[in-house]
Amino acid sequence: VTFLRYKDDLGFCFYRFVGVFRLNRDKSMRENKCVWERVSDTYQLSIES
């Protein structure tokens, strides 16, 4: 789960949901760097009591 953090002109911090990412190991090995792929742009939070 990934959030983008940014500050506005007044200095307030905001967080925006970007998505759920997974490391693509095969592509990372070929390119010799970490390659992340978004697997979902939503996240279902389940809360049980």
UniProtKB/TrEMBL annotation:
Domain PvuRts1 I-like SET and RING associated positions: 1-45
> InterPro entries in the record, alphabetically?
PvuRts1I-like_SRA
- Descriptive protein name: PvuRts1 I-like SET and RING associated domain-containing protein
Origin organism is Candidatus Onthomorpha intestinigallinarum
